[in-house]
Amino acid sequence: MPIHNADIARIFEEIADLLDLKGENRFRIRAYRNAARTLAQLSRPVSDMVEEGENLADLPDIGDDLAEKITVILDTGTLPLLEDLEDEINPAMADLMDIPGLGPKRVRMLHETLGVSTLDDLKAEAEAGKIRTVEGFGEKIEQNILDGIVEAGEAKRWLRSRAEPVVTSLVDYLSGHDDVERVEVAGSYRRRRETVGDLDILAMSNDGGAVVEHFVAYEDVVDVASKGDTQSTVRLRSGLQVDLRVVPHESYGAALVYFTGSKAHNVALRKRAVERTLKVNEYGVFDTNNEQKRIAGETEESVYETLDLPYIVPELREDRGEIIAAEKGTLPRLITGEALRGNLHTHTTDSDGRHRHSLREMAEAARDRGMEYLAITDHSPAVAVAQGLSEDDLRRQMDAIDALNDELDDLHLLKSIEVDIMKDGTLDLPDDVLDDLDFCVCAVHTSLNLSEEKQTARILRAMDNPNFTILAHPTGRRINERGPMALNLDRIMEAAVERGCYLEVNAQPERLDIDDVLCRRAKDIGLMVAISADAHSRDDLDLLTYGVDQARRGWLEPDDVLNTKTWPELARLFAS
Ligand code: DGT
Ligand code: CA
Ligand code: CA
User: Fold this and answer.
1) How far is the CA of 187 from the centre of ligand 3 (A)?
2) CATH number for the domain harbouring residue 179
3) For residue 403, what are the contacts with CB-CB under 8 A and spacing of at least 6?
4) Does residue 2 have a pLDDT over 70?
5) Which among 82, 215, 277, 534 is placed 20 to 30 Å from 58, CA to CA?
6) What is the pLDDT of residue 209?
7) 20 and 109 inside one domain
């Protein structure tokens, strides 16, 4: 394996970090960091320089000692000094210094007092409120650390919803150029994945050079990683990386297929092409016997057509059976946002000061969006931070809903609750009040760390309650924040089918719970889901679209989704 300049730079950075954690001499630390920067910015591989007999010590910030170390790395891929340091100090501790506010001194302190060595340790101690107890730390620093951990996670993949405004501005900007005929975002963004690693933008133009110049001149570009005649990669101020490709008219469809991916879908398409003595790439579809001859490529449809396939929407392009389904004519007729008649998970100011709008305001917002029904599902008492509704509060809210229903013509409010599933699997309100609701949304908010056995048993027990209707955010995951609970979801889904219960696709962008893969599993066993906004404000009602995206990626059709039904239809389902 060739050793790149960046590899050597990384080793020097790591040494500097570990020396820093040891409290070593800062000049020695600085020397490694400076050398790392020199290497990272060098235009030629140092391996070439060594081969050509050049003296590395002539490079800025590199003396005889470091020059010698570079040759050792080129020969062996590592350095004894680094290995010694890694034996002494857990290298994971170096990652902790990336959290804002945590320098080497504080990391050392946390290690000595609480035994913190990894990001997971740090998170656990911060969540348990232990950090604030360490000398020199306080509640504020603890909170900053928690926020920092979240941000560190988000830096890896972006929530698609967070990338959206960035995309809109950039696409507007690119479309504004005279030589640009069309712009589209491809990649995972177009496939509507819940997160995106980077953006892949395709522009149609005959003047690639001009478009690339326009692109790199965008005001939010802070770093140009590469720039050619038809492609460029940049990093935006927000940290998001963007790949641009400029293609001519005749290749646009082929390029769109290629850069939309997924890679696995592309591989499957190419295999299919080979079987037809065709070649598919980002420039078009070609005859293997005469590669000069472009058979298709102007539109995506033309590419699929040469492979004897109908058009496949981007959400399905994951090589999860879509090509066979397309061939057989059994592609799903996917759910759309227009098919949703209402929302089955909504909060109001009745339960939580953080919720921004009253019952009436939420009702009017739903009506303005053309919804036929809206279920009001405030929290139950166990969610103390959200000031959950007591039985009396809930009865009062039910009266208020009756009154408002008399008044509203074109929206029907449903009486419901987001009732907590307690640790023992009981529900957080007595059955006699739950009996009087239209249906119940049930959720786990506490004791998320039970074993799979216990967590599963807890939810199954809750489902035994005849008032149980929909399991809200079933896995409890929050993207980039916390993973799913340990759960046997197959058992839960089967139990739901047996008992006439349902699962939610929570449309909050950081939840999207259940996800696409689980949606597909639900469909396969005949389990319907509710796509729910979990709205905490009027604008949140618009989040449904993210739930629809996830459901589409999970092959769901209108009949798989509860809230495509009218309320009378739903009432019948819930009663049976
Ligand atoms: P991401 O960015 O991690 O969220 O995921 P994608 O799917 O956007 O992946 P990305 O940005 O690496 O590449 C964009 C598309 O380009 C990808 O979906 C398919 C295509 N592509 C990239 N690398 C390859 C490759 O090695 N082979 C093939 N066939 N296609 C590739
Ligand atoms: Ca991408
Ligand atoms: Ca990319």
Assistant:
1) 7
2) 3.30.460.10
3) none
4) no
5) 82
6) 97
7) yes
156-197 per-position pLDDT tens digit:
789 999 899 889 989 999 999 999 999 999 999 999 999 999
- The Å distance, Cα 515 to ligand 1 centre, comes to 21
With the C-alpha atoms ordered 264, 267, 269, 275, is the resulting torsion angle positive or negative? negative
Q: Can you give the CATH number for the domain in which 359 is found?
A: 3.20.20.140
Q: Is 267 in the pocket of ligand 1 (CB under 6 A)?
A: yes
Ligand 1 atom 18: residue of nearest CA: 261
pLDDT of residue 3: 76
Encoded tokens for 38: 């020199």
376 and 391 share a domain? Answer: yes
Do residues 110 and 134 lie in contact, with contact meaning Cβ atoms separated by under 8 Å?
yes
3-state SS, residue 40: helix
Q: Are residues 397 and 461 in the same domain?
A: yes
> 0.70 cut: is pTM over it?
yes
For the chain, the domain total comes to 4
Give the single-character DSSP code of 562.
G
Distance CA 509, CA 210 (A): 36
Note whether 443 and 347 are within 8 A (CB).
no
pLDDT in tens, 504-516: 999 999 999 999 9
Distance of CA 249 to the CA centre of its chain: 33
- For residues 319 and 190, state if they share a domain: no
Residue 255 within any structural domain of the chain:
no
Query: Which residue in 199, 204, 193 sits closest to 170, CA to CA?
Result: 199
Measured CA to CA, the distance from residue 467 to residue 429 in angstroms comes to 11
Show the domain range for 52: 5-153
Mutate to test the pocket of ligand 1, among 256, 260, 263, 281 (most ligand atoms within 8 A of CB): 263
Between CA 299 and CA 539 the distance in angstroms is 36
d(CA 480, CA 464) in angstroms, rounded, equals 33
Structure tokens at 403: 């009154």
Query: What ligand has the least distance to the C-alpha of 244?
Result: 3
- Strand arrangement of the beta sheet that strand 342-343 belongs to: 342-343, 373-376, 412-415
372 within domain boundaries: yes
Residues 140, 160 share a domain: no
Taking alpha carbons only, the member of 33, 21, 29, 26 closest to residue 117 is 21
Q: Is 259 touching ligand 1 by the criterion CB < 6 Å? A: yes
The residue whose CA has the least distance to atom 19 of ligand 1 is 261
Is 465 close to ligand 1, i.e. is its CB under 6 Å away? Answer: no
Query: Could you tell me if 178 and 215 lie in one domain?
Result: yes
**What pLDDT does residue 528 have?**
98
Q: What is the CATH number of the domain that holds 310?
A: 3.30.210.10
Nearest-angstrom CA–CA distance, 472 and 506: 7
119: CATH: 1.10.150.110
Same domain, 162 and 144: no
For residue 99, is the peptide bond before it cis, meaning its omega torsion is within 30 degrees of 0? no
Q: Does any domain span residue 254?
A: no
Q: Tell me the mean pLDDT in the region 113-124.
A: 92
* Percent of the chain residues topping a pLDDT of 70: 98
- 147 with 160, same domain: the answer is no
Locate the ligand 1 atom nearest the alpha carbon of residue 191 and give its number: 7
